[in-house]
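User: I want to check something. If I give you two sequences, will you return the structure for each one separately, not as a complex?

Assistant: Yes, each is folded on its own. Here is the first sequence with its structure:
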Amino acid sequence: MTSMPVSERLGSHLKRAEQALNATKHAVLKPAGLTVPQYAALLHLSENPGMSAAALARACGVTPPTINTVLKNLQERGLIARTPHEWHRNVLETRLTEAGARTMADADTCAVRVERGLAAEFSAEEREALIALLGRAVDFLDATRP
């Protein structure tokens, strides 16, 4: 098998784009005192109150130990509350506190500005094509994962 130059490897380009997006979001979230994983957790909790840590880890694309650290830090700052599930006592439901909702709203304003700026770099057709192409990439990778 012949080697493939890095410049032709799609994975390299995807990783660079992801790193650039994360670095930019990290910079804009810093004044709110949030990391990108903390922001992602608050964002998902704002849309899905009561999520378990396992569901939140899947939604945020992180490991269970990582989400537990994120949740511990958010809880210590009073941004989330965790309570036992009504029927499944060994499952903790996680919800934003009032302070968490305010922090989330402030941070989201900054993150949305980044997302809108990025989207503005493409025409509507290019955005639709990019989303479709990335979806195909995910479908292929999910289907071929050993």
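And separately, the second sequence with its own structure:
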Amino acid sequence: MTTTDELPYPSGWFYLARAPELAPGSVLTRRFLDEDIVLYRTRDGRLRAVRPHCPHLGAHLGAGGTVRGENLVCPVHRLPFAPDGTCVGTPDGPPPRACLEQHTLSERNGLVLAWYDPEGAAPTWEVPDTAHAGVVPTAAWSTEVRTHPQEIIENTLDYRYLPVPHQVDVREVDLANAQGPLLHTRPRLGPDRPPALRHRIRADRTFLMAGLGYLRVELPMPSLGLVSYLWAMHTPTGPRRTRMLVATACADLRGPEATGASLPRHGLHRAFARAMLKTAVGKVRQDLRNWNTKRYEPRPRLAVNDEGIGLFRHWARQFYPSS
């Protein structure tokens, strides 16, 4: 194994869409692994994802397919498919024996995730919700990266790398802690902020990795009464191709019940999330040259203080076939 082209697709949960993109009755096409995936929401709100081609005569269900009531309707021959995937009729007679192949989905914090396992096994774990209920991203940005998802998320524990392009000091407050498919770490970054904020914002971020496609960063700001969230999600779309989404949100640290929800307060949350996103995207752009040109080293020659990389590599093995 010498390049990221030879890393297989890892198992786990991977981002496909934001929930507001899938209103009842909508149909959406996304790239997932080596093919398209068609998402739709029934009129009563059920979310479904299916393989893209109609089993009747191969029409692409995302190229003009519609939702009629609870059924997804083929754009060419108008065959309706029920939420369980079975064909339930034709315009002029009984239905053929046809069924759509479905993907397993999960909605977490307004994000739609799809499950993948190379053996087709059902999900064995879930992505945890945020501690603050009801938090959903209010600002987002995405880009294509020419690398494998593991190469992107591994940067989180590369404390030698982060100070170089981002000009920040990094100190690990708590050692990385692996718990099954979840990996927690708490580094202290900074100060990389305007002087007026350096003493007002505690820079101890809590990082949660849930598999190789999901990273969530939580930053409490007690002096402002706020907590911010950043999501970085990495969806494989082909060999050495990854779609990366960066999304942000902000909420009241003590919850809306304690602070009282108000339009000015919501406006502050959205403005702060937009500012966070702008900063995060600027840092991602600094990383793109490295990600787009580096190769995967299956047996890296690690140096002193590279323990985080070794721990990460050991943890990541569980998402690949044992062979």
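Because they were folded independently, the notes below concern the second chain alone. The radius of gyration is 22 Å. Confidence is low (pLDDT under 50) at residues 1-5, 196-202.
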